[in-house]
Amino acid sequence: MSNTCEPLLAALKQCLLQSDCVVKDGNLPSDCLRNHTDELPESCQNLRKATFECKRGLLDMLRLKSQLPNELMINPIILGALALRRHRLPTISITTDELFI
Questions:
Q1: pLDDT along the chain (101 residues), means of 10
Q2: Which of 21, 71, 81, 89 can pair with 32 through a Cys bridge, CB separation 3.0 to 4.6 Å?
């Protein structure tokens, strides 16, 4: 599975490397993310949040898939739309009879 968050992660890395926290203060990018978040430029903070949301969306998708029975075929568009919700997804309980009405 390809990581759809890769472009965001690459942009975040580039932003961190160009930030004052790394360039002027000599901190590691990982240290800037952990301990100096408030000092980062707004663009880096926005990329950090976007990367977090992207990774959370991937985890939500995996959680949702693990809750579905293997023999149940679900439309991937519906599955993706459900995973985009920003709150914990409820457990899906549906029978095959309900799918083919």
A1: 79 94 94 92 93 86 65 54 51 51 43
A2: 21
